[in-house]
Write a structure and sequence with these properties.
Blueprint: E1 3-4, E2 10-11, E3 17-19, E4 25-32, E5 35-41, E6 65-69, E7 72-76, E8 81-85, E9 92-97, E10 100-104, E11 111-114, E12 119-121
Antiparallel strand pairs: 1-11, 2-3, 3-4, 4-5, 6-7, 7-8, 8-9, 9-10, 11-12
Length: about 150
């Protein structure tokens, strides 16, 4: 099934909700200093449950500091800084703690979906990331630097 890359997101209202004209919605919830939830709802997302039960999570949003710098938004808590970039029509997230970036969305292809409603999220490989095993295919245990 052919994948679709949603583009041209804008912020919706005063929340951490972003949408585009095609109907894609990306929502960010902050539950505590280090617990965030990112939800991508593709257009016509009727088949996706939008009220997932999370009994272990608080029902209200955690207080955070939001800074706006043009097409960038910075969400800060005591331990995590999340930079949301809408530059060049793309939606990208950059996660850091102190001076260390620990997760970056893959540029120009972070969020995609297909017509069946399958949503994929791609991130950049960070230095020091380890990859092990290939499911049912035989291979060496550690797979860093290998191409298949």
């Amino acid at each position: 099934m052919r994948s679709v890359l949603p583009v041209s997101f804008t912020r919706t209202g005063d929340t951490l909700s972003f949408s585009n004209k095609a109907g894609s919605i990306i929502e960010i919830f902050v539950y505590n200093d280090g617990l965030f939830r990112v939800r991508h709802l593709p257009p016509d997302h009727k088949h996706v449950s939008t009220d997932l039960p999370c009994s272990d999570l608080p029902m209200k949003q955690f207080k955070f500091v939001l800074t706006t710098l043009g097409e960038k938004y910075i969400v800060s808590t005591a331990t995590v800084k999340l930079q949301i970039s809408l530059e060049d029509g793309n939606f990208n997230l950059f996660w850091s703690s102190g001076e260390n970036t620990f997760l970056k969305d893959l540029a120009f292809r972070a969020y995609e979906y297909d017509r069946n409603g399958r949503v994929c999220h791609y991130v950049e490989q960070m230095p020091g990331d380890l990859h092990y095993g290939m499911g049912e295919r035989s291979s060496p245990l550690e797979l860093n630097g290998k191409r298949y």
